[in-house]
Amino acid sequence: MKKLVLFTFAFLFSSYSFSQNSWSLKQCIDYAFENNISIKQADIAKLIASNNYLQSKLNLLPNISGDASLNFNFGNSINPTTYEFTQNATTSNAFNLSSNMPLFTGLQQYNNIKQQEFNNKASEEDSKNTRNTIALSIAQFYLQILQNKELLLVAKTQLEQSKQQQTKTEAQIASGTVPAGNRYQVEAQIANDELRIVNAQNAVDISLLSLKLLLQLNPETSFDIQTPNLNDEFLFDESVTPARIFDYATANQASIKSAEYRLLSTKKALLISKGAFSPTLSAYASIGTNFFNQQKTYTSTGEFNLNPIGFTENTLEKVIQPSPVIKATNTPYGEQLNQNLSERVGLSLSVPIFNKWNRVTNMNNAKLQVYNSSLALESAKNQLRQDIYQAYANMQSAKKSYEASQKNVLSLEKTLEFSKERFNVGALSQFDLGVIQNNLATAKSDLSRSKYDYLFKIKILEFYQGKTLELN
């Protein structure tokens, strides 16, 4: 009962901590690495490949097998110890222990070990590639949440400014500076700002839910992410060219290394198929014994029978020859097993002559698999090159959009500041001021989108350079 109480308290405390703490990008990625189903499946495939690799080494050991039999025969049967016929119901028992070890198999076993080694390494790279894919997806969702939160902040700031403008408008109406109809324009602006807040909050909630589902968390779980202190002046190092990124990625990306290992694996499979044409030499050994319930042991009783064997030549007297009296008894079980013990060792040579063309077909198919794997490797490199150059182009485009959005916001902020001064002296209408405020809110939203789009494009290129996905 005490353990149950402690467990319940620990569970509630962990749940409370989970719901109260905001997660960083690294925490999200680490959690996915431990709990994502796709990653678990990749890890299982890696363990299977590791087991196959170990088994390929163990196949060099001799195999040992034992067998036993118990037979009941009725009617005519053969005594396995004397090979004589007997017509009695009999019982026999046999035991055998044998071992076989291949000495030479055309290097098939060695090449199989190397093939399984390459398959094991390919599975390890597949597992890494799955992790990389999940990490990129998490980073994309994470940045989407940050963007939506920033859009929500922009909407709230705009509402606060509209409320401040409403206070000024009411004061102007009271003093008779502006007509009372301006009140409705401000109220319409506030209603529009409140709608933006609702839409922005919905976007935040949906993006948080999407990340929870990706992390395979309970949708009902309270969950939030940390907001890092991002510098708006982040830039990509222009000295890092796409060709340089591609060279690094070709040597280090898990998808490429996996394809390379699978190509090496198919080459070993080709050598295995060629080794099937070679003679195989094996050593074998066995030891066995048996029991038969009709086996007899013959012993002398010490008595003699006087048997006439003929007559003397002159006197015709009977010639008597004594013969010992022999007693037959069933040989005991343990004694039989010891007496019937037999051992055997030897070598076995098998020479392949004709096997309905199977060996030739297997070798030709193995050659095609090598060619297909080489094409798969080339295709993976081409796809990687395309992805990197496309990501680089997208990054440059996102950078230009980000810089243009910065200039647009700066210009509209100055315009709004000047417009407020004109509005305060009655030189600008409430409607025109609201248009400028909406334009600035839209520009800030566009700036937020372009900023996080640019940041994500940078993270993609950093990922291809082998850098950790982090937000500083």
Describe the overall structure.
With 472 residues, this protein is α+β, with helices and mostly antiparallel strands. The chain has a domain at 296-330. Helix content is 62%, strand content 17%. It contains ten helices and eight strands. It has helices at 2-20, 25-35, 37-58, 108-175, 182-214, 242-252, 254-275, 333-339, 358-424, 430-464; strands at residues 63-73, 77-78, 85-86, 90-104, 280-292, 296-311, 318-330, 342-350. Strand 2 and strand 3 (85-86) form a beta hairpin. The radius of gyration is 45 Å and the shape is elongated.
**Mean model confidence by pLDDT:** 85
What spatial order of strands do you see in the largest sheet? 1-4-5-8
**What is the CA-based Rg, rounded?**
45 Å
State the end-to-end distance: 47 Å
Class per helix and strand makeup = alpha+beta
Query: Helix segment count?
Result: 10
Oligomer: single chain
Largest sheet: 4 strands, antiparallel
Strand content bin: 15-25%
DSSP strand tally: 8
